[in-house]
Amino acid sequence: MTRTSSGPRGPRHSVRASLVGALAWITCVAPAAVATAATPAQQLVILSTTDVKGMTSPCGCSIPKGGLSRRAAFTDSLRSVYPHVMLVDNGGFFPDDAKRTDAAWFLMDMMSLLDVKAVGTSPSELRLGFAPLMANVQRTGLPLTSANLVDAKTGRPVLAPYVIATSGDLKVGFFSLMSDTADLGRLRDTVKVLPPAETARATVAELRKQGATVVVLLSQLGRTGSEDLVGAVPGIDAVICGRNVPLLQSGHLIGGTVASYGGEQGHYLSRVLFDLGSDGHVTAGQCQCFALTNEVGEKESVAKMVKTFEDGLAIRNGRTAKSAATGGK
Fold it and tell me: What is the pTM of this model?
């Protein structure tokens, strides 16, 4: 199997046109593969964000990027181009500020609404306590997963160890790993993290046994840890790299694995595009990251929900600030 890694081409006013045009800008890791590869039986797109850090709207940058409504619009646009599109989040979506609990739960609501197929887990998702997290997982039905986060006493997984998502006849397995040296804060006596490589080998084998023809790792191991792991553990078709990983607009090929580096705060959507054989297994893959700028547009229904949330939050914060200034009077 040969896989390729693509060069970036930012989306223009017509996202569909930009996506088709972007294919002409592929920088191949193995150029010969493009000339000799047979027409794929089908294609699969994995869209991902990582380390969103509580951001719900575009940043205040010179060119504002990101936001839930743009994420939704871009995803919808790709679904008009490709028959199989799965949106996932790599974890690290909770705000850095533990006081912003409303944003954490709102993001869970919105990811569930956007039909996110799998959500990785990082130490930041544990910051507000395990019981509140699980209550909101049950409330939203969000497919939060971690293969190596286990109960400190029993050794059993505290979250779903993996997720198998389907699209037509495709079965795609997602699993999440965090570092076994991660700071678990006040939960360090409640949960523990198993060695990532050992867990990955067992989880990949189980996913293949369950019929997943494509396996994707949602990694909170950092860039070096993610690359080292997929270099040592076979059978992983793509790795979404997270935890202080800089943006690389073109993905890398590590052995047989396509690696994605999507930056943070939801400014970009990473697109891993797989060509699949008739048996559903990956024959080629490439990765590009697209900036969620104003040119992408917004999904109006999502934009309204975000505005309602942020307006309400501003009112509540204003009342809190006023109460503090007047001594609660």
Answer: 0.86
